[in-house]
Write a structure and sequence with these properties.
The chain contains 12 helices and 6 strands. With 282 residues, it is of the alpha/beta class. Strand 4 and strand 5 form a beta hairpin. The longest helix has 17 residues. It is elongated.
């Protein structure tokens, strides 16, 4: 049965299958004929509207002469995953971009984050998140604010679950000094960062104001590792919501950007000392 609104992961599977087909030099009609189906079905599979079985996907990979077995296995995992995560409870309450981000984080093999404006959502305390949502224009109804705060806090479970996702965050000093609420919230948020930085799966690094040669003030992003590098995904905030990027050139550029920004930061131990000093000033 066709899906009304495919998720980002479902659309990604379709795009990857289309890339394999095009790399093999087949039209959608030719590929459909080889698989014993029609081009409309092929179009629906490649747009994420229709799912694909493991058997058919492996046949497609064989027909397309895909020699990358790890990629094929990773695509099978995408195709056969039937996870209905906690975010599905919000399906009719929040926009799909909210749900897609939570699903992306849930399945990520690792997360790398650059933040130059706000503390990343997975590290925010409740009052900090509430202050951020209260600043939206046009102003959100209080019920909508509280819904988004609760959703953001539930996303944080990826950092504390039994198999917690490895998480690296690089924060500019402006993130730490900006008071989205009052002094108490600022202090509590810094204390939270210090506490989170002690977790074995979390690394927090800081870029001080006085670092020379840092031109990355607009570099905020979330880089989510896939089962294989070709299935990595980048999420960036735009004035119109979240944008997800997965083209090979984009992924290469964002990996390079993360390394550049990380190289400008203090190591985790010095970063903890830096955050501790700021907290004592409040």
């Amino acid at each position: 049965m066709p899906r009304k609104q495919p998720t980002v992961r479902q659309e990604r599977l379709g795009r990857e299958l289309r890339k394999l087909r095009e790399a093999a030099g087949f039209s959608a009609r030719e590929a459909a004929q080889m698989l014993g189906t029609i081009s409309v079905t092929m179009s629906r599979i490649e747009s994420g509207v229709t799912g694909v079985s493991e058997a058919r996907l492996r046949r497609m990979a064989t027909q397309y002469a895909c020699s990358d077995q790890e990629l094929t296995d990773a695509l099978v995992e995408l195709a056969t995953d039937r996870t209905r995560g906690w975010w599905e409870e919000y399906r009719d309450l929040l926009t799909p971009a909210f749900l897609d981000l939570a699903e992306l984080e849930h399945h990520a093999r690792f997360l790398q984050v650059i933040a130059t404006a706000h503390v990343p959502g997975l590290l925010q305390i409740e009052d900090y998140a509430r202050a951020v949502f209260r600043y939206w224009v046009p102003e959100l109804p209080e019920s909508e604010q509280e819904l988004r705060v609760a959703y953001r806090l539930r996303r944080q479970s990826v950092l504390t679950r039994e198999v917690a996702v490895p998480y690296e965050a690089v924060l500019h000093e402006s993130v730490l000094r900006t008071r989205v609420a009052d002094r108490r919230v600022a202090r509590d948020q810094l204390d939270e960062l210090l506490w989170q930085s002690e977790r074995p799966n979390i690394s927090i690094r800081v870029i001080p104001f006085d670092v020379d040669g840092f031109g990355g003030a607009s570099s905020s992003l979330v880089y989510a590792g896939g089962r294989v590098p070709a299935l990595d995904t980048v999420q960036r905030d735009t004035p119109y919501g979240s944008a997800f990027q997965d083209a090979a050139a984009q992924l290469h550029a964002m990996r390079t950007l993360f390394r550049k920004v990380e190289s400008a930061s203090l190591d985790p131990a010095r970063s903890r000392d830096f955050i501790h000093r700021l907290a004592k000033e409040l």
